[in-house]
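Form P-L/3: holo structure prediction, ligand zinc ion.
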Amino acid sequence: MTSDLPAAGDSGWSDPDTLGAIPPVRTVTYCGHCGESASKKSHVLCRQRLEQGPPQYCPSCRRRLTVNETAEGWVAECKKHGETSGTITRA
Ligand SMILES: [Zn+2]
Ligand SMILES: [Zn+2]
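OUTPUT (holo model):
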């Protein structure tokens, strides 16, 4: 198992999960950029993209995220897991 995915969503991950069917701990199962299994390949390029912009897929359930850009970065919303936010690192 790998745990080397980007921490792009860390700041939003403390939201209480009010959906009983979903465990409180969000597992990173899918790549937030390409939506493929996180353990399937290294996703090196994906991680670079995720440092520069919002994710496309929920890392827990692979749903397409609704992404809104904010002044500091972005807010991505999964219908099931709620909002995740992050800042965009510009070189
Ligand atoms: Zn990927
Ligand atoms: Zn989700």
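COMMENT: The two ends are 30 Å apart (CA to CA).
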